[in-house]
Amino acid sequence: YAVADWYDAEALLxxxxxxxxxxxxxxxxxxAGPLLADFWERGEFPEQLAxxxxxxxxxxxxxxxxxxxYQGFRIFELARTDASLATWYxxxxxxxRTAIRVGASPEQQREWMPKVIDFxxxxxxxxxxxxSGSDIAGGLATTAxxxxxxxxxxxGAKRWIGGAxxxxxxxxxARDVAxxxxxxxxxxxxxxxVTLDKIHGKTSLRMMQNAHxxxxxxxxPEAMRLHHVNSFRDVAAxxxxxxxxxxWIAAGIQAGAFEAALRYITERTQFGRPLGSFQLVxxxxxxxxGNVTASLSLVVRLTEQQAxxxxxxxxxxxxxxxxxxxxxxxxALAREVVGGNGITLASDVARFHADxxxxxxxxxxxxxxxxxxxxxxxxxxxxxx
Length: 385
Ligand code: FAD
Fold this sequence. Notes:
Number of strands: 9
Bound molecules: flavin-adenine dinucleotide
Strand content: 5-15%
Distance between the termini: 47 Å
Radius of gyration: 21 Å
Number of helices: 12
Low-confidence stretches: none
Mean pLDDT: 96
Helix content: 40-55%
């Protein structure tokens, strides 16, 4: 493991934090590793891992949250094993928890947060729509209509929502028809008018289940509205805080792919020599290690800044953009040095190679993150003409 963490960033953790991480790593190697290829091929999530993972106390109490670096390494460790496992975790610990942390009133937080943390209230973040991905701020078309009794009626559709089929509630973002502002609601997944359709045929992140959601006259009580979400600015604050999680995932995927490639090239021989003895293979290993090390350095520094309360859009956008670029390069190099076996699930690199594509696009594509940085550098927004 230390090979992928070349500059020993883990040394920034306490002994106790490292011990817990080691237990997580050991569980993932022993219990998750043998299941991954099969479940990936079948396009199913290994549900039997969910409860044992939750039992490893993956989230700290709201009043005493984990240090950012420790939380980052937890995500890194999951992604180093599998991108879907990391995404399953960040759907609850990142997306949904952030929706409650930023969007709920103090009273709502007191009620929901303990259940979010012990996973007894499982939720998903339902923002993207069939017709609006990158331009969701302007294009969000799901409507919320307030009735005379104070309750709300939602109509519209959501796309790509990760983990929706097994969630208790869907955090749905909708536009209030009265004031045109975006509001957020916790919708019981089993409510009348909610239809979930699994998105089939994915070639990336196949284990993670993504849903197309239709909302047809769905009634939601006012008590289930997130009282501190009053415009898209509040949603943007959530996105800004969560994007660093994806950068940690992009770093972890690279570590997993690099280590799998390293194992392979020491075992396989050609021309009577191990693959790892060839100069061209060594050059690719060095590039992969450079990418992983640069990615870890980026996310560690970003997380340190966030711990100080520095949460600028362009900072998390830069980390997500750059680690994703490194990730695409690293997984392609890993797949390359494994040769033909690099496109079969028998080698872990094939799974990392395929899964990297979803991570490259979700929570802000390369282009959108680049434009966020460009706007900060020039003062000019280039999103629209
Ligand atoms: P589009 O917005 O249609 O973009 C298509 C292409 O055009 C991209 O390359 C984009 O960069 C480019 N483009 C768009 N606008 C511009 C511009 N102004 N300038 C230059 N280029 C531009 N969403 C949720 O709400 N919750 C989830 O849980 C969730 N999970 C996801 C899981 C997976 C596996 C995937 C693939 C997506 C998930 N998403 C989720 C949605 C994800 O956030 C969107 O896919 C992403 O925001 C991009 O939107 P889009 O796919 O509609 O692409």
